[in-house]
Amino acid sequence: MADNGDDQYRINEGDYVVLKRGDIFKAVQILPKKKVIFEKQWFFLDNAVGNLYSTTFEISSGGILQPQKQKETGNPSDLKEAGTDNRHIVDDGKSQKLTRDDIETLKEQGLKGQEIIQQLIENSSTFRDKTEYAQDKYIKKKKKKYENTVTILKPSCRILAMMYHGREPGKICHLRYDTLAQMLTLANIHAGSKVLVFETCAGLVLGSVMERMGGHGSVIQMYPGGGPVRAGVESFGFPAHFHDTLHEFPICHVNALLAGALDAAAKDPTADEKQFGLAAEEEQIPPEAEQQGSPEEQSMETNTEDDAGQDQEKIEKEKRREAKAQEKKVKLEEKQKKLAAAAALLEGRNADGLVIASRFHPCPVLMTLLRFLSPSRPFVVYSQYKEPLIECYTKLREVGGTVNLRLTDTWLRHYQVLPNRTHPVLLMSGGGGYLLSGTTIAADRSKPAAPQQSEEPAPKRQKLKDTEG
Amino acid sequence: MSFVEYSDCIQDGDVAIVYLNHNSVMPVKVQHGAQTQTRYGVIRHSSDLIGQRYGSKVTCSKGGWVYVLHPTPELWTVALPHRTQILYTTDIATITMMLELKPGSVVCESGTGSGSLSHAILRTIAPTGHLHTVEFHQQRAEKVQEEFTEHRVAHLVTVRNQDVCKDGFGVSGVADAVFLDIPSPWEAVGHARAAMKRQAGGRLCSFSPCIEQVQRTCQALVDQGFEEISTLEVLLRVHDVRTVSLPLPDFGPDSRTETSPNHAAISLKTTTAPREMPGHTGYLTFATKPRT
Fold it and tell me: Which residues on B lie below 8 Å from A52 (Cβ)?
């Protein structure tokens, strides 16, 4: 019906995808003949191309992926025999008759995970005495160990947030996925708005904001240091037009912008190099240019055997230098154009939302960036620690300009739901970080209240007739 | 003004949110000549609201002042008239992320209730998505439809007055995500699956206050072939910022120090927990539809 064009649901070459096994995720790009290592196993993703997203693949020998047959029904053991309790189970380490070597041999013979588990069950002297529940648990545990499958998912904010939190929490300032969810909602991120983002979370927060805006409106990444960090944005695999809505502005020019002196600061190229670390980028260009140059040089040497060659070489060198300078100029101009575009977006000081999640002290960042928001717009600040947010709260109460201030965190618990065995999962996250959220208000124009009141009729009389005269 | 698009100034016909204080907000339908009574006195729409900037301070007749805010789904959630138990922002935020909602998503929801979640969904799926919401209570369905029109989001939503367990969502093969907040969600899981896109691994969420409901729902999800079934609970903890003063006890004269400490207390900025907090709202069960 609505699914006629099913291409968007299929895995294509070049797609950014997320690999999943159990609760483990890894973001990769589908590239031909590229070896991927995931959970101590290597394989190639070539065979995944053309399959539907969220297909589970079996990894066969040679790292070849094969789509798993739909729903392998039932558990490996169809034995209905089970014990009633564990009074006869003794942990003597002798219940499994297969040795490590035996299992390795089975693996070498090319037995599938399912078959190995069947072997393990048959060779366990205590399996039959275990309760039905314990048997389930045993099979689940062995499945995790011996089944070599991988599921390929389409990336999303949910999956990437869970992936980063599970694999590299340090890279995202320990921002838990439910906390990120709160941020996106509290900041009222939606299509068509203009949102400022200041983050040092590998681009996860920025990408999540972009996902929620769906390529409508504009996102301005306020970045510290030499250049914007947004590796995580790539993993979302956004269509190209999303990137047209993404702007960047160096935090080191914010004071100049607020003072209306950005032109002076940014249009001086030397100041640029010093101030926003263009110098660092430039350094990378010469070696590149040199490399490009060297094969030319070699070919030239072989071709020119006479004296004229030297002159020509000189000219070539001069040309290259010019080209390099030209390239540098073009790059700088481009950078300035982008800076000017971002500055133009900020200058109106009419942004619709502000999201901060960084390893920096949030207080100066918040106090400065709030100045770019329109009145009656939400903002949200994340910090791994509570104290800096207490400071932000105190400062905001002191200077005014905001209402609805709230310092919160969320408590998250997962459940195991099984017939007669429902309970909270034994381990839970101890904390997901803290949020300070609020709403901006218009600066007080301090108009005298008394005359305004006298201009208006008394409320009681007012109810009877229309106010509008 | 619209719940899916900001504007700068208050206009006749807008719905504005009056912020009275920290835990009190009220919605106001802005109308020429109308007035609204608050505990700080009267707000006259024509002179106090229309033409003013959202976020402005308004001085009421008794001299007290309030702020007039642009509506957002989050403000609406704390301001809306309750016709049923409603979902709050903490759960809504989690649901929005876990259902992978974004601009363009097609979502099915039941029941609509007071529309707290519906507004948040609409905000996220605009401008190209659509919400199909099913409410079995006729007056509630009519009332919420009215609100959607007033909030200028009616073009993004279809309200159906029917029983989702019997009649489903009224659409098939179109939804990216389904949300269930009904007494017996397990009876609607089949309808949910039918409403979802065939080849996409769409997401489902069921909200239930009781664990017995969760167990039956999870069983139904397994039976319907749903994958990645996961149940969780999320609670908001509010930290009230306070300056507290901690007195120091007097240990009597100390021979080692000449002067005895004369400051009898130390004050510091910290946070306190509220005496009571909502300790349970409901269990959220999420699942992914199998691709077919």
Answer: 199, 291
Interchain pair B285, A417: CB under 8 A: yes
pLDDT tens digit string along B181-240?
999 999 999 999 999 999 888 999 999 999 999 999 999 999 999 999 999 999 999 999
List of domains in chain B = 15-71 (3.10.330.20), 75-235+280-288 (3.40.50.150)
Using left for φ > 0, alpha for ψ between -120 and 50, and beta otherwise, residue B81 falls in beta
Which of B46, B215, B235 lies at the smallest CB-CB distance from A467? B46
Q: Is-contact B245 B265, C-beta < 8 A?
A: yes
Task: Please identify every stretch of chain B with a pLDDT value under 50, giving residue numbers as ranges.
Answer: none
- pLDDT reported for residue A101: 84
- More confidently predicted of A82 and A466: A82
Asked if A152 reaches chain B (Cβ–Cβ under 8 Å), the answer is no
pLDDT in the model for residue B259: 63
CA atoms within 13 A on the CB side of A295: 3
Q: How far is residue A426's CA from residue B153's CA, in Å, rounded to a whole number?
A: 43
Question: Can you say which residues of B are annotated as belonging to the binding site for S-adenosyl-L-methionine?
Answer: 114-117, 135, 163, 181
Q: Over the stretch A289-346, which tens digit does the pLDDT of each residue have?
A: 334 434 444 444 444 445 666 778 888 888 888 888 888 889 888 888 889 999 999 9
Q: Where do the H-state alpha helices sit in A6-52?
A: none
State whether B59 and A192 contact (CB < 8 Å). Answer: no
A55, A181, A390 member nearest B269 (Cβ): A390
Among chain B residues, CA nearest to A9: B200
For the annotated binding site of B, the residues are 114-117, 135, 163, 181
**Residue B106 and residue B125: Cα distance in Å, rounded?**
7
Q: How far is CA B55 from the centre of its chain?
A: 21
Give A354's DSSP letter: E
Provide, as residue numbers in chain B, all residues whose Cβ is less than 8 Å from the Cβ of A438: none
Q: What is the 3-state secondary structure (H, E, C) of chain B?
A: CECCECCCECCCCCEEEEEEECCEEEEEECCCCCEEEECCEEEEHHHHHCCCECCCEEECCCCCEEEEECCCHHHHHHHCCCCCCCCCHHHHHHHHHHCCCCCCCEEEEECCCCCHHHHHHHHHHCCCCEEEEECCCHHHHHHHHHHHHHCCCHHHEEEECCCHHHHCCCCCCCECEEEECCCCHHHCHHHHHHHECCCCCCEEEEEECCHHHHHHHHHHHHHCCCEEEEEEEEEEEEEEEEEEEEECCCCCCCCCCCCCCCCCEEEEEEEECCCCCCCCCCEEEEEECCCC
C-alpha span between A388 and A435 (Å, rounded): 11
Contacts of B285 in chain A (CB under 8 A): 417
Report ipTM for this prediction. Answer: 0.96
Restricting to A residues 286-315, those with a Cβ less than 8 Å away from any Cβ of B are none
Three-state SS string over A359-415 comes to CCCHHHHHHHHHHHECCCCEEEEEECCCHHHHHHHHHHHHHCCEEEEEEEEEEEEEE
B89 vs A185, A374, A413: nearest CB: A185
Cβ contact A467–B73 (<8 Å): no
- Report the CATH fold assignment for A157-264+344-397: Rossmann fold (3.40.50)
Q: Taking the domains of chain A in order of start, what are their residue ranges?
A: 9-154, 157-264+344-397
Give domain A9-154's CATH number out of 3.40.50.1100, 3.10.330.20, 3.40.1000.20, 3.40.1210.10.
Answer: 3.10.330.20
